[in-house]
Write a structure and sequence with these properties.
This protein is of the alpha+beta class. It is 53% helix and 18% strand. The chain has a single domain, classed as Arc Repressor Mutant, subunit A.
């Protein structure tokens, strides 16, 4: 798979994963998100996911962040 194709698939997988996290009670950490992407054969870095979040927000999907302790958690804000 080319890097370009992987990037396109990555943002779709990120969208699917976040849609499965419909509120602060279901929020996931960056490490969990990276792990779920890895299970799907997609490699990513934290910085590239922040860019994906911005692109999804431009598309109209609200990605919210909450901090619990040391780690931030992310979810889809409907």
């Amino acid at each position: 798979m080319t890097k370009r194709t992987e990037g396109r698939l990555r943002i779709l997988y990120v969208q699917d994963i976040l849609r499965a996290c419909p509120g602060p009670g279901h929020a996931i950490t960056m490490a969990q998100l990276l792990s779920l992407l890895g299970e799907r054969g997609i490699s990513a870095e934290r910085r590239s996911l922040y860019d994906d979040f911005r692109q999804l927000e431009r598309y109209g999907m609200q990605v919210a962040r909450t901090s619990r302790g040391r780690y931030s958690r992310y979810y889809w804000k409907r």
